[in-house]
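Hi everyone,

Forwarding the result from last night's run.
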Amino acid sequence: MNLSYFYILIVIFTFRNVSTAIKQKDKTEIQKAIDWLMSQRQLNYGWGNGLDTAQALLAVELTKSSSNLERKLSAKQLEIELILNLWHHDDPDAIFIDSERLTIGNIAIYCLALIAACHDPRFFHGHDLIGSLLHHEANSDLEFTISSLASCKAGMHVRKRYLRRLIEITNTKSDVEVLSKAILALQCVERDHRNRNVKPLLKKPLTALTLLQEADGGFGSLHATAIATQALQEGKAIWNRTGAVSWLLNHQNPDGSFWDVPTTAEVIIALANTGINSFKDDNCEGQSKKSMEETETAIITPYMADITYNTSISNTSDTFIKEFTTEEVQIGRTNITVTYSLWVGSNISEKYSINITVVNNETLYDIMQRAAETDPKYAFSATEWPNGHYVHTLYGYKEEPSSYHYWVLYRLQEFPDPKNPPGNQMVASRGVDDLIIKDGEHYLFWYKKL
């Protein structure tokens, strides 16, 4: 055998043995961290307060590091803690669980844990938690990115203005955690919603994140390094993952922990090379995903002292806007058809209807825009508030509060019949931005005196 060839084989086998040893060491340290996390679990299968329980459950679900029964018990405890928070949220003087308030960021973390546990946060015991996120846009970029990630993972339609803000954040922010969370949200849009136009836009922020990695392999802190590792492991970026993993393991305590429950949970997800974007609906096959599609749910208002609104979002590049408007973010590809009608006058002096065919999971606001593009009769004007659009003018008729003339929106199962007009019980319970259309439904705007 050629001597040089023999040396090459030795190098290859040595490299494989070293790689295997490193992977085995990583696995051992991950298990130590998981064991510590399990040791912090209380008798009620929670971790002391709602957020700790949510973050721990997310790690446990993504790594499947506990029995199915134990995970279900932890999910049930999370539900109990969250319900107690929801029960008290209207009272500013109420004592919350460990003083945790229902901020946008906190609700988003709860939602991610529920999704990982195969519970639908849009139908949480009469509350639409995702609707609450969409109704309150936080000024904090970090809360906004977490909220966007949770909304995307819940399968909600991704609004263009939200996507623009995410792109703006990835192009302008150098904070590791904010940039990483924004990348995770965009990766979800590209992966779960199959939007081809987002993928090229991830290259720049991924490169920017790699440049924030320090010479020792870390990204400044345990939490930041864990989040950055999660964001980079799914992206096509050249970075030193080995250095990041070594940095994390060098900061592991002898008992297996990484400082506290939330940080340990984040590091477990990072070291296990898994993440929230690796979770899909088919992970819930065999355990019915808890959702009640026909049940109306209420949108809760988080504790207002912690909420601020940002209605001004800077424009992004013309290239992005052009690319995005050619193919809006949509979920699935099933075509559905709905009827959109306008009635004018209490005696219905004018009436018009149009059929619109789109892919599923569009909102009524999207339908109205398409109808207006198709036929000028359906042109409308709306005021944009933090909780969505308020339509005040349709077909040239503007609401007149002085004479009590308003546009009333109805959601119907049958085509609207002027001889048998719909009653008040058919008035839509949601606004045009949050009303997700369903195949075969009929939507009627009726201008009349109340």
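The chain has two domains: 11-305+317-326, 335-449.

Cheers,
N.
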